[in-house]
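FAQ: What does a multi-protein file look like?

Like this. Sequence, then tokens, then the next protein.
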Amino acid sequence: MLIQENLSIQEKLKILTDAAKYDVACTSSGVKRKGKAGSIGNTSEAGICHSFAADGRCISLLKILFTNQCIYDCKYCVNRCSNDVVRTAFTPDEVCKLTIEFYRRNYIEGLFLSSGILYNANHTMELIYETLYKLRNQWNFNGYIHVKAIPGTDAELVERTGFLADRMSINLELPTAQGLKDLAPGKTRDKILAPMRQIQQGISVSSHLLGYDRGYKKPYSTERAGFAGGAALIRPELAEAPGAALDRKISAKVTGQGESQGLAGTDQGVPGGDSHNDMYTTQPDARPGCIKSRLVLPASQYKKSAFVPAGQSTQMIVGATPENDYQMMSVTQALYQNFGLKRVFYSAYIPVNEDSCLPSLPGGPPLLREHRLYQADWLLRFYGFRAEELLSEDRPNFNVFLDPKCDWALRHLEGFPVEVNLAPYDELLRIPGMGVKSASRIVAARRSGRLGFEDLKKMGVVLKRARYFITCSGRMMEGARLDQDYITNCLVGDEQRARWDIEHRDSFRQLSLFDDMHMEMPVTRDDHYAAAAGHF
């Protein structure tokens, strides 16, 4: 495969933005609209996507691949080396120019940069590092940058890039090692997990040295139990030694100082010089499944600037391999707890290649399943649920008719109804129809008096779901009763519309007040007469 070097930057942009659309950390706008006289603003479909900040702001990003050339032959990927597609690559200066020019025109607020693998992992990561270095230091770009780390890259390259990016991510691709072996034989779990562990380690050290953390824990400290199942799915060799990959020690390698000083809050236990020996390093475990990773740069670098301040994320493909929802959520749970990820993204498998190893999808991409996984992921991150509460080996897949929270509540009616004027915050979070904000408002408001159903509605509680599971001053809402069949029938009816919208989301669009759907009627003789007479 030859890289097409005679293409214009606009032609490269068209190819490499289209190739980047399967990274689902953001959603594409897909709209092209030129500015015109008498109007304000315009839009571009080339690589403009939207992400959302913690405060709810929508942020536009330039989303591109550095190159769609790749040395791997992943069966599910449109950029696999065996595909006959036009190959091209940006230069670091071209990416910088695009980012700055888009930013100056107020198209974007940041950059999302991913890449195939050009020649080898280190060469590709060097180009990405050069791009970010020029953006930050030559162009003085201070906007948001999300960059993909290339599996198999040297630790120092990953580390140096982490000081320039706001967020980094390494795609896990498939939930189990066996699935990766079947569909992406060139990739291994070690290549993916080593930089993931390294980024986690760097974030922890940076947070500690810059004073961002409270109650600092060693990056590899894992006192939590119950994650052996998810860890074993990520790395099957852990099945014989549960938790083996979870026990890591980070210590200061300082001449003349014992390991016992560690990171106990004093500068003596933290490397502070620029010498080669002053570094953080992981001590490999003799047990199976250890992930060898270390931080190469001296601690003085971590005292100057934040390392990946927006955290790291990953992505898994849904439906390309036969894993069930319980396995996927177990892996997700293990990733959150053991690698400190900010977010796990799910991408419904879309058939772009023909291969006997890939599944046939007569019903199309599993969009509803992807939606259920995102709902459950939210419950893990913000609502205090665990994977084994939502699913089990006997019941390994989510209910297609009910969202995971409603389904869980219906299977645990012995804990309902809940009195909203007395229940603690964590118990309120488990009530269908209540979210983090509404539960916080309830806890704050009931200090001033007892709450009724009208009060709950004003606080944002979705009563059409919550009404079956709560009481106010000992009374249920009128018309509600605690009966599993009755509640199920009521909730399923409300879910049908949402389910149809998910499965047919490309077949309709939202109407606006001024939308004529481009259905122009022919001008009649009466129309001409009315216009001439001034009746319009």
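And here is the next protein:
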Amino acid sequence: MAIAPPRGRPNVKLVRGPFLKFEPHPDHVVDGESFRELCARLRDAPEPPLLVADLFSGAGGMSLGLERAGMKVVFGADHDPDALETHAHHFAGFSAGWDLGDPAVVAEVGELLRSVEIDVLAGGPPCQPFSKAGRSGMRHLVRQGIRDAHDKRRDLWESYLEVIRLAKPRVVIMENVPEMALDREMFILRTMALTLEHMGYSVRARVTEAWRYGVPQFRQRLILVAMRDGRSFDWPQEVAKKVTVMNAISDLPVVEGGWRPKGGARGWAEYDGPRTDFQRAMRRGVSDNSVGRVYDHITRPVRPDDLAAFELLDTNMRYSQLPESLKRYRDDIFDDKYKRLDGDHLSRTITAHISKDGYWYIHPEQNRTLTVREAARIQTFPDDFRFAGSPTAAFRQIGNAVPPFLAEAIGRQVIRTLNAPPQRALKTHETAGKLASWFDSDPAWAPWLRTGNRWHAIVGETLLGTETAANVRSVWPHLAKLSSPPELLVNRETAREVASWIGKDSDLEQLILAARRSEESGTPWTVNDELLAELVAEKVVSRVAAELAMIVDAEGEEPVIATAGALRVAGRFELGRERWLTNRNTDGRLAIGRLIGFADNSRRAHLGLIALGATVCSPKGPDCGVCPLEEWCSYERADRGRKDDSPTGA
């Protein structure tokens, strides 16, 4: 039987014409010899700029930002032909439509960039998830510093690492979606960081909100910066206040949906001039004969039923609240299908989806979706930057781009770092080594995490995770005999008596329930990932206890666990205070990952960090004298400074 399509699903048309075609940049090159000659000329300048290669460049948001910071982009590569034409028009050098998933192409790119001693390699490689089996094999190779040399089409982030290995740039800048880093194990990010450290780089990574660098939208991005020769990199200073949507676009003329200027691709809308500092920055590169013009201020037509919906829609209204007669989509699935942007706040993230229908981006005051120029403004592309292809292609290029303002802030900080006296950055193998050794030195702490037994980890963390050392010493020998769910069920009366000694009767009953669930699963001797997920979902076992169980199992994943204690250590270590983490699942886990690394000792380092937060780095104040991270810790240095500045020096 045929399945009926969703109610009233429309055929949303692409935005037609005008189609822009561009000539390449005057210094565009098409072969390796010309490329090397161009780079040699730039090197011979009185003040030679840093030379940049931008892989997965798109239209050139990263390229534009780095050039505005003072660098020179000489190489771009992307698979989108419209984006490649845009990049070739605006930037010198190579703009190559090469397949960076092909090992032969990767080798050619790496050697070409090495031949000109490229300074900065930038890019945002797409990432695909790995199977657990694939992760296990790759984890072993990375930890041993071994390169997977067999001939296969690489995942593109692996290709990116291979180009770095071959080209040996002074600086690596990577931009990507936060999801690349924030899976349970943070596998790709930790793999990249360890691989780069093997190559001699120091690595910093952060999930950054683009609005903190003047971008008028809520856009979270993962930024990784790696400096060769171990230089320390600090993040650039943030802007004082947010730039709102109307700060960015209020100067652009009123147009109706579907409006097109006379003259096709050469047509324009009349323009009265900028009103805000942001708008003046957007107009800075406009030529004298275009001062009264704005290009690409066009968008898709508005259907009559959409117009009726847009007229009712305010910034707080959801699609599901529209009258039934105006709904063309199921509101249980598309609750936020239409979104009018709030002119006094940030835009929602501009993504490539804007090329499909634009309903997420309805103008704050006009009953239409955003124009190409408005979307470009919100991404911080200036008004003299135009996009090859159709308006639909332009929207796609804009949505896929790195905001130039964000790239410029990173680029300026890179230049400052390279021009400053070198300061050695701390690498993860150093902090991880200290944490692992400290954990190994005191077997009395959390013995349930040392046996490699998942059930031990759950029992010990549930019953003894917050107990004193004395209670642990007296109680654990009895609990250690309960090494599997069946053994708890057989000995549950004895276990109840032991739990009563420390007032954990109700917690023990939860463990008995968990053991019964294990018995029902048909594999009572195996506490596998699926059972753990079910126990957490049913609130039988705490998430922390389940994740600790995964860490102690040498064959399983290594999830990065953001316990309160681990976050406290990371916050004090990084900035001298614990209340700096805006989100424990983003910057908190990244900070923890940076301390524990991904080498062979990362499990023990992670357990050591958790132990440190539970026993030494307490909420009331740390016992710095016994902390393995004391010599590098910002909190310890700040505390020493406070004592030195006190009247008594005490």
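Q: Is there any per-entry metadata?
A: Some entries carry free-text notes. For the entry above: DSSP finds 25 helices and eleven strands in the chain.
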